[in-house]
Amino acid sequence: MSYAYLFKYIIIGDTGVGKSCLLLQFTDKRFQPVHDLTIGVEFGARMITIDNKPIKLQIWDTAGQESFRSITRSYYRGAAGALLVYDITRRAVSYEEGEQFAKEHGLVFMEASAKTAQNVEEAFIKTAGTIYKKIQDGVFDVSNEVADYIPEDAIAADLAAPAVEKVFDAG
C-alpha cells in the first residue's frame, strides 16, 4: 500500500512500563500479558489516514534498561514523534504532575492502557495529527528530507531533521 507520508515514532520509558505492549496493541490490536524484555529496539508499523491522506507510522520500541541507553539513544535522532511511557499503576507520577509537565513543554498528554486498549489509538493518531499539522503549517519542511531505506522498510533519517518523508506520486 502506498502512503503520502512516513512518520518515525519512538516509544521511550523505563523498563517494564508497557512500551512493547503499547506497540503490540496499536499494530496488532492485541494484548500480551507476558512479554520478554526488549533488547536494543523492536520495530512495528501501521497505516493510518489523516485528512484523507494515507500515512505510515513507523514505530521504534526502545529498551528501557540502563545498559541499552547508549544504543537506544541513536534511535531518537530523526524521530518526528515520541511517546513517553510510564506505568500509572506504580503512581510515581500523579495525573496532575504528568498533565502539568506536558503543558509546560507543549506536549500532548493522555493516559492509555495497552491492556484494555483505552486511548491507545488516540495516542498515536493525535500525535500523528499534530505532526501532520506542523507539516501543513510549514514547521516541518519535508521537501528537503533525505532518507535511505534499510531492511524491513525501516528508515535511516537525516540526523538533523525529523523523519517525515513525503512520498511523491510519479503517476
Automatic annotation (TrEMBL):
Molecular function terms from GO: GTP binding; GTPase activity
A Pfam family annotated for this UniProt entry: Ras
Residues in coiled coil: none
Similarity comment: family membership: Belongs to the small GTPase superfamily. Rab family.
Protein name as annotated: Uncharacterized protein
Organism name: Triticum turgidum subsp. durum (Durum wheat)
